[in-house]
């Protein structure tokens, strides 16, 4: 096979250079550039045809923005949490990329979803490039899915996989586990390299678009949690799903980072059991299950993940520091966001935390990304500093500005209705959102600025201290 001039590709970001270098100029990674030779296109192939027709393009029909728009047909898996994240089911002809740490349960999730679809009468093909067919069968037997009519294969060559898929009835769902193990003979590079991953993903995506089958590609993740391989693969697929979780906990979270056919901020919650993954339909009760109501430094956040309101506990510990530079440790939240809240507390409210170590954690291992957690974090910090517990029946949400103002956040009504369903009686929220929260069974405590909340908590701490002195 004819070869072109060798190129050098960064295995971290996919940047292509004409010569080798120790450091990638695009992403700054060291020792990540590898020489790769790409095979020349075959004579008479698509590239030659396009070259001959250069300058003689066909006329494309232009359409307006108005007109009939049909909802994309979907393949409903039957797992409510999975269908929620995908936007109501898998879209025919779409390509999805599922990433997650090793052992988190990606294969278990896909095996359960494929078994549900196969039992519903759809043809499902599961191609494993990392495990033998016998290993997949053992997992299916352990999960009680051995009777599901899932077509199984253990193969890594892209051409062989495509030939197998075209031989027989067209499948509705194709699972490739994983994309990093595939290789194509059209590229002279080792499996797992950027060039091979890009070429294999492009071939599988082209198959999905031309046949109407839904293709799910499983991707490895790097040590910092990013999906390994070239970022161009994430741009090529229609949806990027991330399966997250802590090895020390039983629950798992499926999060949509990109979705062309649905929302990108939905999450699905699962619990890992001996019989596989079980759906958690009430995640708020899960995250608040081990709550200690009378502990100082704990505030309940009425958060929102996509269209689903979730209540989660924010825990803070503020202690005098013995170090020259106090520690700031955060688990489940943004470090920069915590630094901003601390600065506003000190500059606008007179709360001196410069000589204290601050530890902040989201109970249960959930990672919070929305700014509505600012008010709950500030309440937890002040509660830990004063030693007075927050009201056991109160939830908090609101964004804090640099001026100290508490700004409204989206959808206060669903947040408070979820809180009322779990037995909470009070909602501490921005004053500007008080009118929008009317009509719920929760009494509203409007907070216009952060110093008002600090004054209320300080008065509560003084009252608790006086009661202890009187006793």
UniProtKB/TrEMBL annotation:
The keyword DNA repair applies. ATP binds at residues 100-107. InterPro entries: AAA+_ATPase, DNA_repair_RadA, Lon_proteolytic, P-loop_NTPase, RecA_ATP-bd, Ribosomal_Su5_D2-typ_SF, Ribsml_uS5_D2-typ_fold_subgr, Rubredoxin_2. Residues 357-471 are annotated as: Lon-protease-like. GO terms for molecular function: ATP binding; ATP-dependent DNA damage sensor activity; ATP-dependent peptidase activity; damaged DNA binding; serine-type endopeptidase activity; zinc ion binding. Signal peptide: none annotated. GO terms for biological process: proteolysis; recombinational repair. Residues 71-221 form the RecA family profile domain. Keywords: ATP-binding, DNA damage, DNA repair, DNA-binding, Hydrolase, Metal-binding, Nucleotide-binding, Stress response, Zinc, Zinc-finger. A motif (RadA KNRFG motif) lies at residues 258-262. The keyword Zinc-finger applies. GO terms for cellular component: cytosol. PROSITE patterns: RECA_2. Belongs to the RecA family. RadA subfamily. The middle region has homology to RecA with ATPase motifs including the RadA KNRFG motif, while the C-terminus is homologous to Lon protease. Plays a role in repairing double-strand DNA breaks, probably involving stabilizing or processing branched DNA or blocked replication forks. DNA-dependent ATPase involved in processing of recombination intermediates, plays a role in repairing DNA breaks. Stimulates the branch migration of RecA-mediated strand transfer reactions, allowing the 3' invading strand to extend heteroduplex DNA faster. Binds ssDNA in the presence of ADP but not other nucleotides, has ATPase activity that is stimulated by ssDNA and various branched DNA structures, but inhibited by SSB. Does not have RecA's homology-searching function. This is DNA repair protein RadA. The gene is radA.
